[in-house]
Amino acid sequence: MADPLLNPRTYDPAHLDSESRRLLRATVDFFEQRGKKVLVDSYNDHTWYGDFLDFAAKSGLFAAFCTPAADGAGDPAKRWDTARNAALSEVLGFYGLGYWYTWQVTVLGLGPVWQSDNAAARARAATLLDAGHVMAFGLSERSHGADIYSTDMLLTPDGEGGFRATGGKYYIGNGNVAGLVSVFGRRADVDGPDGYVFFAADSRHPAYHLVRNVVNAQMYVSEFRLEDYPVRAEDVLHTGKAAFDAALNTVNVGKFNLCTASIGICEHAMYEAVTHAHNRVLYGRRVTDFPHVRRELTDAYARLVAMKLFSDRAVDYFRSAGPDDRRYLLFNPMTKMKVTTEGEKVVDLLWDVIAAKGFEADTYFDKAARDIRGLPKLEGTVHVNLALILKFMANYLFRPAEFPPVPTRHDPADDEFLFRQGPARGLGAIRFHDWRAAYDAHAGVPNVARFREQADGLCALLAAHAPSEEQQRDLDFLLALGQLFALVVYGQLILEQAALTGLDADLLDEIFDILVRDFSGHATELHGKAATTDAQAAWALTQVRRPVADPQRTARVWSQVEALSGAYEMNP
Asked: Where is the Acyl-CoA dehydrogenase/oxidase C-terminal domain (predicted)?
């Protein structure tokens, strides 16, 4: 396997087509030529990243990556390609959350448009992208958050086939500059789901009132109000239940980008942390000679590689999805919930090593330590996504179905199914291929075998001591159980990607050393829950396992970590 971490010195996404490679390399070069001082100073001073948006506009970056082929006027560079979108998301995260965020909310803002049959709105969005505009997603409200059942954005019919919209939206990225804002509301004259409306607004319209930036950051996360805003018939994207589905399906598309942003942030932080620690001498010893430091850095590296393996493999399921294969709807909240929380763990491990250095204003790490916290909290909390994951547990563990193998998907194809996902229901009926196959294929890896014992133990628990009706109403109990299930899913895709990429066997064993420890920790948590029965608690204690130790293996993986010292430092 090639170097698993993104390194701007050698970056060349050779798995993509030539135009995508050129645009991604140009993005890296923009940041490197701009330099680290500008990067950190603009972050510290909360300077709006207009220069980056100018680059994106002039290069046609967002127009290429965000325009589906059907709306691209025959331009072969324009398509919605999850593989290259993931690559861009990782690059932008590598240089800072704000740059990723303006891209992310553009993706979200376009979701309801590309799902719409409104040809005029689609053409308008494509024209705006060509002109270099960014977009916004007007869903959340201050009083209700993202509870779309309770929207207070009211649309009153104007008697001419359109509406007048009045209401506020809160926590809306790009709301200060968006050429198109997809806004969710409800008709004042129609009750229930039939009254929902998604419409396109323009932040430059005089009836659009920008209130403020609600965060203390470089990015602009707006509060805005519409006052008697004219919504023409050609501005309406969806009505009724279709508007509700468009909201959920847009989040399905957009929240995948959180995992790759987290990966990019962790990669940059890791280079900086390892280089600092390896070149610092304390008490007459190099910091990285201390055993606890080596363990923490090795764990951070293994966790980060695991994040990439899972996320890369999830791309394939997104791109191969269709009406009869919706397995991506499990792997998607997994990337949002699991990968982003793993990112927090990676940064925490690095921070324990570099200590006070992690607070210094002229470092990238100072920004990473703050921004990595945000990703698990966007597009639904960890708890919301973990509860969603639980809907798939029974079919995933106990009722496998036959599917053709999903190949690696780096082909330059348009992922048009993502904009015709259909009704956002029926998750409990989705079937999966047998998760055991990936584990069986790596049974010779000691810690994969040890973790497989724990996964089989989870199945035994659910078969013999399934949650009672009362426990199924106790979300605190279910979330503890969900963490155990999530680890099994996480391990499966890691193993599949390891096989496809020829991952170093030592590194794979080290990753599963961590998963064995994590499963033991979550089993201990389940043991301590007030709702856990005696039988379930007894089971939990049997799942506290030690990983298979191999000092020589760990030393070989450490050599991979040590090689990161000096491997990359951003241009000053």
From this structure: 244-392
Q: Does pLDDT of 366 surpass 90?
A: yes
Which of 50-59's residues contact partners 24+ apart within 8 Å by CB, and which partners?
52/99, 52/102, 53/102, 53/132, 53/134, 53/177, 54/132, 55/27, 55/30, 56/132, 56/134, 57/131, 57/132, 57/133, 58/132, 59/23, 59/26, 59/27
- Which residue in the block uniquely carries the two structure tokens 């229930």? 192
**CA 416, chain centre distance (Å):** 20
CATH match of 18-134 with 1.50.10.100: no
Q: Which two tokens stand for residue 76?
A: 């072969």
pLDDT for 180 equals 98
Which pLDDT does position 3 carry in this prediction? 80
Give the separation between CA 148 and CA 185, rounded to whole angstroms: 8
DSSP strands (E only) in 348-423? none
Q: Is 47 left (phi over 0), alpha (psi -120 to 50) or beta?
A: beta
- Model confidence pLDDT, tens digit, residues 94-131: 999 999 999 999 999 999 999 999 999 999 999 999 99
Please state which CATH number belongs to domain 137-239: 2.40.110.10
pLDDT of the residue at 385: 86
167 strand-pairing partners? 226
List of residues 6+ apart from 218 with CB closer than 8 A: 42, 43, 45, 46, 47, 48, 49, 96, 98
Q: What is the pLDDT of residue 20?
A: 97
User: Amino acid identity, residue 551?
Assistant: P
The CA distances from residue 415 to 66, 67, 127, 237, 405, in Å, are 11, 11, 20, 20, 18
pTM for the complete prediction? 0.97
